[in-house]
Design goal:
Helices cover 67% and strands 2% of the residues. Helix 3 runs antiparallel to helix 9 and helix 7 packs parallel to helix 14. The chain is globular, with a radius of gyration of 20 Å.
Length: 356
Amino acid sequence: MLYNFLYPLADQYSFLNVFQYITFRAAYALITALVLSWMFGPLFIRKLKASQGKGQPIRDDGPESHFSKQGTPTMGGILILSTLTLTTLLWADLSNMFIWLALMVTLGYGVIGWLDDHLKIKHQNPDGLSGRWKMVLQFGIAAIAAIALMDMTKPIVDIPVFNYQWDMGYGYILFVIFVLVGTSNAVNLTDGLDGLAVAPTFMVAAALGVVVYVAGHVGFSQYLLIPYVPGAGELAIFCGALVGACLGFLWFNTYPAQVFMGDVGALALGGALGFVACAVHQQLLLGIAGGLFVLETVSVMVQVASFKLTGKRVFRMAPIHHHYELKGWAEPKIIVRFWIITLILALVALSTLKLR
């Protein structure tokens, strides 16, 4: 919005030229989202407590240590989505279709998560929205985004390190749907401990912010041998806002959490990361940077498959962070160590930009 209103006046007021720079707007998007979260977070949490009563219901089959968290308000992801949306609209170029698609996917998945959280609280039942309806809605939103991207960009997937772009043809639509739905649910599975999902999300978003900036710059993309996607650089503002919104929420979500993000946050954040990666054909790079999300998802798949085939469990409990809880690891230790793993993986992902 500021770009659309102020940059055209740069001919008369030269200092407004600063709005043409994506790096400037991305940095201030981060700061804006962070400050908004800090300003409105306490009031928002008080409102959630007053309206939710008993708060998020705790699963009976979860670790016993989680029973003490009963009464903690949930749906804190609304704060993330609000600050992310307002900040993106403030600093991004609103004529850019990538921005509107990113917001559509993020908010669409957020609505699905809100329905799930609302039903959990209303009926005090941890099951919420049925898995069938959840998947139908997720696939529907992902299909719209996939078809739009197919029309806006090439149907290719960049293969890190090997400098190869795989042209998938119309199969690209199915692949994008798989990535969006998979990433959304992977972040949701990871969101089981205080701050465990939101910190890795902003680390991956920061890495993707660098990637989309490079992909949207014809000179940098040619130099680093990654697909050039005209207009995709504007997604760096979205990523900056996402980093700031997550950082601001982590202030209240860190152990011991004052508020949980709920599915409204987790599903939306996963959808946001998945879309940004798909927009610049870096789905495999997302798999590297978001390796923690992959690990959490695979641990559930292995646990279920092992139990159905052999009647035995590989882990004491899945997702894998619960396995370490039952092994006696303190919750903060698990959280921080998983953060460190994500930071390393994000740096490895960025390093592949030069390993071509």
